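> forwarded from #structure-qc
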């Protein structure tokens, strides 16, 4: 154990090394373990047809949306590669991400040969690639987004899922809050006596559904992605489901409810998954839930840059609120830098700095490479400020703090 020099140069190198090496818990992804077969997306054609890149592709392409989306995946990837990489420099974060993946997999990025990249993937099994990607990305475990309203997903759980400690589950329940009448039909079909108006014993039956699934999949939290208009102060079915069903079960099972707030779904439906946008949400909704349900735990991330400061300040008021990630449209270096600095300044080390939201297995490589680099830079500044006061910082201090940020805060908050 030795105190690091005041000039901070030692600190920068050691911090960079430790941050590059810390194993992370990625607490929100759309990945699946190998048992989910084709639900786990992987390989270069899936990387190139990520909806972030589709949105950017249509900035340049005059092609009809439907015509493009009906093309075979490989043809879509050809189009994206030509338009976003060969015909112009790939400077966007999602474009750069593709190149980071290729580079870290040891491929010749300079060749610009999509065929050569495809050849590399042809020789792999999914289980080999899972092992390789988790190692390259330094990811200890990911949390899946498990949707009990998806028949394909239900079928996998009915068949049985082999335990893979690298893949933990979360129960994603958007339809219960956003379209209860539709959700009620699914629950009825699954044997829960639920009416579309949440009448009679419906609330108890919804609670039974939530309890059954949380225990069946061993969910570490329940989650929903919510519109910028989300406000539990408003009366209505959504608020009743939240207060009579979701929060009681979360409290009973001691699992957090993860609120991901600020989406404007399908502002351009013809873009499919790429058709969602962002809106400033009401921080009052978060305040009221944390205040009215002090025994419930809330994981919260918000999509609008304009919500970030007030979200951090709200977390200062409620210890049952854990802020996480630079989500979706915020997961760009300039915003990760700004948000992480602000969070360190207002929350110290009591937040979860990042999740990947990976949809394709190889995303873990670029999303964590890029985030580690930015977070390392921001942390260096903060530790350098400490050194400047005469406070000494040891290697053990750095290891302890990084473990807290990238694993401990999540594990302690979910209690597992
Ligand atoms: O609702 C969510 O979980 C979002 O992350 C959406 O899946 C979004 O399409 C996405 O992939 N963002 O990164
Ligand atoms: Zn997501």
């Amino acid at each position: 154990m030795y105190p690091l020099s005041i000039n901070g140069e030692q600190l920068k190198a050691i911090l960079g090394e430790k941050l590059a090496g810390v194993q992370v818990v990625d607490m929100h992804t759309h990945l699946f373990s190998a048992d989910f077969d084709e639900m786990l997306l992987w390989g270069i054609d899936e990387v190139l047809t990520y909806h972030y890149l589709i949105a950017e592709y249509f900035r340049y392409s005059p092609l009809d949306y439907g015509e493009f989306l009906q093309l075979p995946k490989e043809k879509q990837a050809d189009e994206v590669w030509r338009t976003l990489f060969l015909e112009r420099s790939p400077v966007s974060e999602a474009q750069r991400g593709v190149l980071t993946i290729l580079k870290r997999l040891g491929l010749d990025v300079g060749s610009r040969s999509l065929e050569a990249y495809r050849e590399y993937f042809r020789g792999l099994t999914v289980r080999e690639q899972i092992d390789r990607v988790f190692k390259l990305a330094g990811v200890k475990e990911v949390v899946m987004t498990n949707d009990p309203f998806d028949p394909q997903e239900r079928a996998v759980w009915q068949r049985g899922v082999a335990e893979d400690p690298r893949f933990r589950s979360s129960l994603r329940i958007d339809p219960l809050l956003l379209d209860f009448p539709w959700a009620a039909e699914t629950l009825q079909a699954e044997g829960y006596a639920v009416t579309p108006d949440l009448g009679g014993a419906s609330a108890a039956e919804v609670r039974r559904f939530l309890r059954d699934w949380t225990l069946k999949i061993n969910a570490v939290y329940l989650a929903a992605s919510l519109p910028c208009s989300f406000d539990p102060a408003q009366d209505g079915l959504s608020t009743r489901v939240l207060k009579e069903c979701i929060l009681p079960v979360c409290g009973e099972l001691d699992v957090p409810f993860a609120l991901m707030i600020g989406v404007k779904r399908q502002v351009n439906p013809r873009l499919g998954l790429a058709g969602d946008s962002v809106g400033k949400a009401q921080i009052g909704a978060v305040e009221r839930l944390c205040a009215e349900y002090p025994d419930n735990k809330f994981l919260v991330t918000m999509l609008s840059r304009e919500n970030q400061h007030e979200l951090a300040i709200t977390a200062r008021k409620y210890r049952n609120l854990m802020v996480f990630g630079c989500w979706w449209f915020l997961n760009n270096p300039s915003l990760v830098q700004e948000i992480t600095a602000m969070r360190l300044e207002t929350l110290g080390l009591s937040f979860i700095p990042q999740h990947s939201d990976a949809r394709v297995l190889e995303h873990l490589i670029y999303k964590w490479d890029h985030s580690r680099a930015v977070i390392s830079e921001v942390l260096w500044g903060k530790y350098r400020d400490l050194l400047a006061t005469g406070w000494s910082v040891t290697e053990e201090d750095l290891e302890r703090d990084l473990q807290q940020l990238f694993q401990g805060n999540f594990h302690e908050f979910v209690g597992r």
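QC bot note: The longest helix spans residues 363-388. The mean pLDDT is 97.
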